[in-house]
Amino acid sequence: MSEDPRPPEQATQRVPQFPMRPTDTTPLVRVGPPAGPPPLQVGNWQAQPPAGGRPPRRFPPALGWVLKGLGLVAVAVLSGLIWLTVHGGQRGGTPNRETSTAAQGAFQFTPVRENAQDTSCAEHSTGQVRAFFNGTQCTQMTRSLFTTTVADGGKVLVSVSVVQMPDAGQAAQLKSLVDANGTGNVRDLVADGAIEVPGGPPKGVAGGGYASNLRGNQVTIVESAFFPPHSPDDALLKRVSTDALRLGTG
Description:
By secondary structure, this protein is of the alpha+beta class. It has helices spanning 8-11, 61-87, 127-135, 168-179, 234-244; strands at 110-118, 140-149, 155-164, 209-215, 218-226. It contains 5 helices and 5 strands, in the order H-H-E-H-E-E-H-E-E-H.
């Protein structure tokens, strides 16, 4: 046996040595919050209310869909108003419209050709009316053609001519001249060879129904005739012509 190198008073106090076992240690427990900022949550995250303020307002899902729907409706209404603003105020002078824009009357008129304008009134007139225009030039002449259907199913071709004169006195002279028999008139677009109406009166409407009116320096002249083979009816054509005076817009 070897000698103990420690002093005698220490050598007498020997502590037995035992091997350490796993169960002899106790896991450490952290007390208090972890140091540093909290970890970022992913998934069902909710914003924290600002310091000293109110929590953010959250809408139920159903209310959100309602608000989106109302927004789409507002956009649709605004688009409709823009479309009406752009297209609603347009006036047509084209022959493709199905009905006339004039005020409603006894008959419904469908345009065939509208607003054919000219300033050479003498070239488009006959008889004494032509001579009148040679001495007193018109300011403008506007001619249009319409059709309408009467109660018995007969179809009528209607010519509407609007002549503007330099002043009201000359317009009154023109009206007195065209109202008299055998003095000539302004030729309609068919008689003038400017347009053909399939099935309509081949030589135009001269000699049929007639009406005219005077408004300031403007004279409106209306003539009408049946499509063949309708029998003559002067009284009915007179009614059609008188009603068509409202189509004269110059």
